[in-house]
Amino acid sequence: MFSKKTLWGSLAGLGLLLGTTSSAALAAMPTSSAAPNSQFRSVEQPLALKVGVAIGGLALIGVELWWFLFSKSPAQKAEAHQGIQELTITVDGGYQPSRVVVKVGQPVRLNFWRNDPSSCLEKVLLPDFQIASDLALNHVTPIEFTPLKSGEYQFTCGMNMFRGIVEVQD
Ligand SMILES: [Cu+2]
C-alpha cells in the first residue's frame, strides 16, 4: 500500500512529465506557412503524440477516481483502557486510519496526531457530536465524545475535503 504522499508525488511527477513532453514537442514543431494576414497558424501535431497525451490524461483521471472512490484504509478498532476507548489517528495527507470502530455507550478518545503542515488539515470537525477542534502541528489533540447510538459518523477537515468515519457498533 502506498502512502498518500508517495501517490501524490508520483501523480505530480507524471503530470509534469506529460506537460513537459507535450510542450517540448510543440516547440519543436515546424510552423507551417500561413496566409500573411492570418492571425492563426495551424500547428500540426503527430497523431501518436495526441493519442499519447490523451491516454496519459485518461490514466491520470482513472487513478485519481480510483483513489477517491475506492481506496479505503482498513478499519481499526479502538482499544478500551480504563473505560475509555482510545485510538490514535495520524493526520498526514488525510486520516490514518480513516475508519475507526468503537462500541456504543462507552466514552471515546480519538488522539489526532497532526504531521501535515497544510492549512487544509488544521481543523477537524465531528458535526454529529458538535465538535470542531483546532489541531496543533506536530502535537496530539485528544477529541472526546460518547456515542449513544450505533451508526456511522463522519469526521472531516475544515473544508470537508478529507473525511473519516467513526463506526459505532452495538
Ligand atoms: Cu481541508
TrEMBL record:
Spell out the SUPFAM superfamilies in the cross-references.
Cupredoxins
Position of the signal peptide: 1-27
Q: Which InterPro entries does the protein's record reference?
A: Cupredoxin, EfeO_Cupredoxin
Instruction: Indicate what this protein is called per its UniProt record.
Output: Cupredoxin domain-containing protein
Residues in EfeO-type cupredoxin-like domain copies: 65-165
Q: Which species expresses this protein natively? A: Atlanticothrix silvestris CENA357
Question: Where does the chain cross the membrane?
Answer: 51-70
Q: Which UniProt keywords apply?
A: Membrane, Signal, Transmembrane, Transmembrane helix
Q: Which Pfam families match?
A: Cupredoxin_1
Classify the source by domain of life.
Bacteria
